[in-house]
Amino acid sequence: MRVIYTSRRKKRGGKKTAAIIALIILLAALLGAGIWFGADKIIRANHPIGFADTVTYYSRMYGLDEYEVYAFIKTESGFDPRSESSVGARGLMQIMPDTFDWIRYRLGEENIEFDSMYRPDDNIRYGCYLLSYLSEQFGGGITETAAAYHAGAGSVEEWLSDPEYSEGGRLTEIPTSDTAHYVDKITAAYDTYCRLYK
Q1: Fewest C-beta in 10 Å: which of 10, 112, 155, 192?
Q2: What is the pLDDT of residues 120-160, one digit of tens each?
Q3: Is 7 helix (H, G, I), strand (E, B) or coil?
Q4: Is the pTM of this model over 0.70?
């Protein structure tokens, strides 16, 4: 009688343990899903699709991947059209005064003023023109384009001509740490935009 009682107790205990394990697995799955959806929401909030109509229009006009444009806007200004750097770059895509003059000349828009770089439409248009120019100059590579956007086309040409930093027309290393960090930020943002929205 005692043996029968012990075996029934073991059976009941086994069922109870299985139920507890199933409950723990269910709670862990729900918690995991909550964390995943919460993290996704945070990542999307940090990688917005701002000024979408303008970005889409000018990326298409200049043959760019719009997610690349979003990566530059996020990295340059965090989507703040009134952003201005300590060296005088303005707007969403942080156009420098000299760069503005060069683009304005190339586009034949002598009547436009530098203050227009606070306007999202003008800033994105000028930024997309510059990205398109640099992308074409450096064979469409995002690393080389981003490096040129940050350090200038002359620096990238110099690095590409040095086998210590390049191979086959592509950069293998960026010798300037701030430009290397900038390129990492651009490529990470671009990868995130593609993963979230493509």
Answers
A1: 10
A2: 999 999 999 999 999 999 999 999 999 999 999 999 999 99
A3: helix
A4: yes
Maximal CA-CA distance, the chain: 103
Using the structure block, give the residue that is written with the tokens 């350090």.
151
Nearest-angstrom CA–CA distance, 77 and 50: 12
Q: Rounded distance, CA 32 to CA 37, Å?
A: 9
Q: Amino acid identity of 42?
A: I
Nearest CA to 74 out of 100, 95, 107, 48 is that of 48
Return the structure tokens found at 14.
């086994």
Q: Which helix (H) or strand (E) holds 166?
A: strand 166-167
d(CA 119, CA 20): 60
Q: Which two tokens stand for residue 153?
A: 């086309």
